Amino acid sequence: MSEYDLVVIGGGPGGYVAAIRAAQLGMKVACVEKRATLGGTCLNIGCIPSKALLQSSEKYAEATHELASHGVKVGTVKLDLKAMLARKDKVVADLTGGIAYLFKKNKIDHIAGTGTVESATSVKVTSEKGDAQTLQTKYILIATGSDSTPLPGVEVDEKQIVSSTGALSFAKVPKHLVVVGAGYIGLEMASVWGRLGAQITCVEFLDRITPGMDGEIAKNFQRILKKQGMEFRLKTKVTGAKKTKTSVTLTVEPAAGGDAEEIKCDAVLVAIGRKPFTEDLGLDAVGVETDERGFIKIDDHFATSVPGIYAIGDCVPGPMLAHKAEDEGVVCAEILAGQSGHINYDAIPGIVYTWPEVASVGKTEEALKEAGVDYKIGKFPFTANSRARANDTTDGFVKILADAKTDAVLGAHIIGPDAGGLIHEIVTVIEFGGAAEDVARICHGHPTLNEAVKEAALAVDGRPIHI
Prior knowledge:
The chain is an alpha/beta fold. The chain is built from 13 helices and 22 strands. Strands 1, 2, 3, 4, 5, 6 and 17 form a seven-stranded mixed β-sheet that branches. The protein has a five-stranded parallel β-sheet with strand order 8-15-9-10-11, with helices on one face. Helix 3 (47-66) packs antiparallel against helix 4 (81-105) and helix 3 (47-66) runs parallel beside helix 5 (184-195). It starts with a strand and ends in a 7-residue tail after the last helix. The relative contact order is 0.12.
């Protein structure tokens, strides 16, 4: 029986970061992870491998369709999918190995197995072989993340009908891939396989793509993706799937009801969202309260209904984002060490790593209207940005929302080249309570994509220079 100050259940971005910060603060820490490698869904089968494939597929598309316009002539471009997938696997292996090194450096015990909460001060760990041990601890932190949401009538086999996990490892490029769900994950994986030659059909239950995204941005996003070759079937629900050895036939019908029809394809990706991974943790037995969707209820300090047990990341309410979980892990560890901590949830960016990228922070225009907030809008298109012109990456625009009276930046939404990098200027401004005028007055290097952000801030006051 081992004794610790903190036992973290889950070795993903929230859990491993919390473990490292707690160790830095002098705690004796153990991290329980059922996977053989650390890093959780994000590093092993999520954020990192998908971004590796997005980068590789972008290069393939560039070599196939775009280099000639820059005066770079290449011969026949061939896809080596096996090498592309191997590169993705190496990226994952290198990074998971890096976390293992950080655990050793910070003297954190990595305990492989499935963790179950037995009491407010004990965690049972069962190894893959069935051996069990009990860890005694002052605090428990649950950071078990989330899992793909299943779709009734469509059974995932990770071969023909896949979740986001199987979509990372198709043995060959599907001729026709149907993506069920037009959210961030579905559109990113659709981009990968579409660039590599697959016909893409996205089936979405709602009347729009990327729910929760600023409506104007989402509308333009769909238009650009359609121009790239994606087909969208909105207001449509999938009710069943039949497989043969070489194909899948989906049954679909209008979301509002109506006649059913069939879509034949050779692969299906189910990406309708994620659910908290909170089952079989022993939470009910010890009295940890969850809501109707399975999310663990917490207070402002990440404490659950049971003193000594805390929770962070995807298994608690809020955006299911790795960087949100990381920040919560750091702040929670600091609170447990007697320090103060704070997270501004209005300053957490969300990014879609398609091409062009889409990035957002703060409030959408729809949210401000619903709340009755008087606001101003500043927009600037990348067609008027000199660096975007030089790079031939002119799709999209920057949109900044500011309070009509105080000029405080309330939100920003970018669709365009390197949107995921550009958004962080506005993240910083919101975190420090800045105004659109602050952004407009800051000198931005020329020629850079960042100048589009400055021009959008100038446009809030009706004084952009280059449009």
